Amino acid sequence: MSGPLTGVRVLDMTSVLMGPYATSILGDMGADVIKLESPEGDLIRQVGPSRSGAMGGMFMHANRSKRSIVVDLKKPAGRDIALALARTADVLVYNLRPQAMERLGLGYEAVAGARSDIIYVGTFGFGQDGPYAAKPAYDDLVQGLCAVPALIADAGDGTPRYAPVNIADRIVGLHALAAILAALRHRDRTGEGQRIDVPMFETMASFVLGDHFGGLSYEPPLDLGGYARLLAPDRRPFRTADGYLCAVIYTDRHWQRFIDIAGRDDWRDDPRFASHASRTRHMAEIMKSVAAIFLTRPTAEWERLLGEADIPHARMHTLDSLVNDSHLAAVGFFPILEHPSEGSVRTLRVASQWSVSQPRPERAAPRLGEHSREVLAEAGYSEAAIQRLVEARVVACPNAGD
After folding, report:
1. Which is catalytic among the residues 169, 188, 223, 402?
2. For 278-301, b where at least 16 C-beta lie within 10 A, e where not — what string?
3. Which of 88, 146, 173, 313 would give a disulfide with 247, using CB separation of 3.0 to 4.6 Å?
4. Mind listing the pLDDT tens digit for each residue in 4-28?
5. Domain 238-315 falls in which CATH fold?
6. Catalytic annotation on 169?
7. Was domain 9-207+328-396 assigned CATH 3.30.300.30?
């Protein structure tokens, strides 16, 4: 291992997506990430097709650069194993509700008793000092609470919809990642570990309101909030005479050049187009007019005209065409790895480029319990003790004999 986090060990007690996404990035950066799974395994192993039936694509991408150990935490010996692993870990990340961690005997005080300077990070639904503290949370629920479906309805046909990506899980996962890195830096300076809670609701509320707080930022409010440009019904890929094209006509210079292309000289003296502020106020009606203009020419002609005018634009990909994008191919974004149970797997390169300590996936996503024996041995368990734990079904390994 040679990444920037080489030497950092992470005990990953998360499942599904939010926590695993954050810890996979830590693993790509060189941390030794030990994924502790229940005997049933992470539920997301079953999402999507896989050759073995237990390695779906979403799991593969969110759990690479990790080792897997299976432990039944409901058994006292399983709790002892978790604490033994915590003693060797710099960071513990979980996404159970804190009350569940307490019931397992793995609350912050218990874990800090095993290692006082550990960074103990919870990624769960809600801050623990509010009335929602004990509620369960999923991506769809948090999107709804944070007005994402309502905003989509305002910008569309009036029908609330969820964003078709796990936007809350991934955004909150990135916030958890930032918190972990900052906490490691704090510990480097002070020697102090600490507990960190990263609640989904508060994190996503901040994310959404950063764009849409608007006049609600003031007391008393100046308006009802909402960024008009983002909510314009025709802010979408423009339908052309033969397809779709994405275009961003944003600055004064862009608008002057688009007016030339469109042949709409009457817009030059129209006060709606006079400044960015006035265009924003009238964005819905302006975008409706622009959408009608895009219908008059085919996509290739619009690409040529917008390219000559230096107006930002891009074709609208489908999932299939995205995977075959020429730029991504040129930068080697989809390396092929050989997985022991899945065969050839197309993975995703780390997007950032580093001049010295380039992060990269160090290993393919693990089979369930693939590293149980080696992780326990590193924690000081003898081979005989490990075998007794296997026979008692406290831990599990993928070997046929187990």
Report:
1. 169
2. ebeebbeebbeebbeebeebebee
3. 313
4. 999 999 999 999 999 999 999 999 9
5. formyl-coa transferase, domain 3 (3.30.1540)
6. yes
7. no
